[in-house]
Amino acid sequence: IQSALSALYPPFEATAATVLWQLFRVLDRPYRGDGLRCLLDFLVPAQRALQRVQREACAKYTGLIFYHEGWPLCIHEKVVIQLASLHRVRLKPGDFYLQVAPAGKQQARLVLKCLSRGGQGMEEVTVPEAMYGCVFTATFLEKLNGERENFPLRSCLLTTGSAVYRTPWKNIIN
After folding, report:
1. Is the dihedral of CA 14, 140, 67, 71 positive or negative?
2. Which InterPro entries does this chain map to (predicted)?
3. I need a labelling partner for 32 at 20 to 30 A (CA). Which of 24, 115, 144, 151 fits?
């Protein structure tokens, strides 16, 4: 588990507390402490999905050195794609976060979570696998905002430990 997470979220010494805590929340909630089931049904498929997002986002930068080695999944100690829901975080209009979520037996999917279109409650938008390559682009958010009238998305929530940072999307994709 540590090997898989450290490969996805480097530098792991900076992100370990956040991603391990989130993984334990996933283990506790949907899997009721069943570590093997969590590993096989969530972590292995999540790893494949996150590797694909990472590979496709980084493809256009082949040969370059990244300022933040974990981009796009993290920016140094700040986690960009969450492993668990941010339940206690109060979303403001324009806020959203990305999460890899369980999607049944041995499946995981990338979702975007934000306030519902009416501003009350949470909306979860599944990111189709065909769009994984363009998630970390301005076009991705423009497409989503084209479908939203009242609350255009602007700020992505990043986490480190229990702290949450609202970061303009343009700062993450650049």
Report:
1. positive
2. Rho_GEF_signaling-related
3. 115
